[in-house]
Structure to design on (191 residues):
C-alpha cells in the first residue's frame, strides 16, 4: 500500500501519518523530518538545507529525490506513507518513475484541506505553547510556506486528479474525525 498525505503546512499531516503507521504498518517517509535529522546531525546536506527551510522555501529537488530514492531502495517495506513529499510537479513525476522501477504503484493521495486563516492560528498556538518550536514556525516564514504551497505544491492536485488517485478530507475538524475519514478512504482502496 502506497499513500501520499498532502496538504498545507499545519494541516496535521504528521499526526495523521503517525496514526496510519500504527494502524496499517506502513513506513512513514517524511522529507521534513529527514531534513531536520540532517540538520541535527550537522551533515553537509543539513547545512545546505537549513537556511532554505528557515526562509520557508523548497529544498532543491535533487537533494529531496536522492533522499527518497535511498529510502525506497534500502527498505524491506512494501507499504509507505509519504508526508511532505511530493511538493511540486517535478517531484511527483520523479516519484512515479521511481515506483515504476521498483515495481510498486501508488494507491491513494489524501488531501487534508484546511483554510489559510486556521493554519495561521494553529501555528501561532504551536509557537506559544511549545518551548522548542521549529525555527521555521513563525508568522512571517509560515506566510511564505503557505505562499510556496499555493504556488508550487497545489499544482500536483490536477496531476493526481487526472490519475483518479486524489481524495479530499476536511481537515478543519477534530483529529479523531479526520483520521476516521482517512481510514474509510484507505479501507476502500481496491474496492
Ligand atoms: P510543513 O509541511 O509544516 O511546512 P515540513 O516538515 O513538511 O513542514 O517541511 C518543512 C520544510 O522542509 C519546508 O518548508 C521545506 O523547506 C523543506 N521540505 C520538506 N519537504 C520538502 C520537499 N519534498 N521538497 C522541498 N523541500 C522540502
Amino acid at each position: 500500500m502506497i499513500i501520499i498525505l498532502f496538504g498545507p503546512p499545519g494541516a496535521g499531516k504528521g499526526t495523521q501519518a503517525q496514526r496510519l503507521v500504527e494502524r496499517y504498518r506502513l513506513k512513514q517517509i517524511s522529507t521534513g523530518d529527514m531534513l531536520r535529522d540532517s540538520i541535527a546531525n550537522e551533515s553537509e546536506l543539513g547545512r545546505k538545507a537549513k537556511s532554505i527551510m528557515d526562509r520557508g522555501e523548497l529544498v532543491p529537488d535533487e537533494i529531496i529525490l536522492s533522499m527518497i530514492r535511498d529510502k525506497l531502495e534500502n527498505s524491506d517495506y512494501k507499504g509507505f506513507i509519504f508526508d511532505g513529499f511530493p511538493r511540486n510537479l517535478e517531484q511527483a513525476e520523479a516519484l512515479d518513475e521511481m515506483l515504476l522501477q521498483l515495481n510498486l504503484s501508488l494507491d491513494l493521495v489524501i488531501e487534508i484541506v484546511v483554510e489559510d486563516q486556521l493554519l495561521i492560528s494553529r501555528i501561532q498556538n504551536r509557537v506559544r505553547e511549545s518551548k522548542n518550536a521549529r525555527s521555521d514556525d513563525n508568522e512571517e516564514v509560515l506566510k511564505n510556506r503557505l505562499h510556496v504551497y499555493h504556488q508550487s505544491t497545489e499544482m500536483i492536485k490536477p496531476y493526481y486528479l487526472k490519475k483518479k488517485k486524489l481524495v479530499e478530507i476536511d481537515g478543519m475538524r477534530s483529529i479523531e474525525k479526520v483520521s476516521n475519514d482517512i481510514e474509510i478512504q484507505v479501507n476502500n482502496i481496491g474496492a
About this structure: The CA atoms of residues 4 and 160 lie 10 Å apart.
